[in-house]
Amino acid sequence: MAESRRRTLDVRRRAVAAGVTAIAVVGGGIALWLTVADNTAYPDAAWERVVLGGDCHCADGSEFAIWDRLADPTRVVLFLNGGGVCWDETSCAFTSAGPPGESDFYAWNQQSDGPGDNFDEEGIFDFNNGSNPFVDYSFIYVAGCTGDAHLGSASQTYSDTLTVEHNGYTNGTAALDRLAEHYPDAAQVVVIGKTAGSIAAPLYGGLAADRLPDAQVTVFGAQSGAWPDHPDFNLEILDTTWGAYDAMPGWAVEGLAARQWGVPTFWSQAGLHHPDLVLSRFDFAYDPHAAVEITGWESGDPTNLDPVPNSDELAVIDANEEAIEATGVTVHSYTAPGEGHGLFEFEDFYRIEVNGIQLVDWLGDLTTGDPPADVHCDDCT
């Protein structure tokens, strides 16, 4: 109780210092911080859409753009959005079930994808919230529109009428080049990956450190901890379908054949290449949407997008982290209970608290001081 009280007072002091005008605390021992800052050091910062030419394009060949928000030029977030994944004629079809350019499986162009369109200045994109650990950071927002988790480098003809450009790695590294060019004095770079975007986040952390060797680079990947290291998936999808294995720099695949190069190894390869990288992840213990795409490589029915029956998602998450750390690479982790899914674009970003530690406080410590201890739910249901 005393420790909880000290934490509450500490957060309140920081909130007041940041100009917070409203704090709501509810009973039952759970604090839901609804904080609104009345000032920021960069009140005029705005999103700028930047079309990246050259070889950059979305899955249907349409133009590819990033969104850049200039605030503090010495602290920059590279935000890798999700966008879904695909690898066959059905999942990669250019159909729209809802927003234009998006199917049930993935976004195949950018008609509906941007920080303003999607998030309406909520969650991590609320730059007037004094509790936001990235409130004054510059942002480069990279949309996923190629169905390959920002990893692909291949053109695939799935039928006579469907050719898909899995071009995510070309697009993503062009965004990294812009970051290095426009923020050459960046002292802190935080690579944040959301859902499918978090799959490639550690690799992009290593690539960012290659380009900006004097910067402290932190990686925060959210909601892909349950993706397995399955040899068939590694070969058939990552290598053959997406062309990712051959596109990577040498350090990313060093010592690994294509069948051995799975999603958990992205973390260990990046950490071994750049020992100063701060690597971290977040997962809900039983997110029903976190790994539905790879049901064909787990037990259960591979023909739909339902959660895998009889699969213990939390056990996979914990085993993956253990395998990564067995290579000598540290992954700082925050595991929350339940079946949540959305994080960055919702106010839950500020409300999540496990074992008395708020996620936003944990992230603040991760990026500004000594990395905090892991947070793991006790009762994770």
From TrEMBL:
Organism: Occultella aeris
Pfam families cross-referenced by the UniProt entry: PAE (PF03283)
GO molecular function: hydrolase activity
Residues passing through the membrane, by range: 15-34
Name recorded for this polypeptide: Pectinacetylesterase
Keywords from the named record: Membrane, Transmembrane, Transmembrane helix
Recorded superkingdom: Bacteria
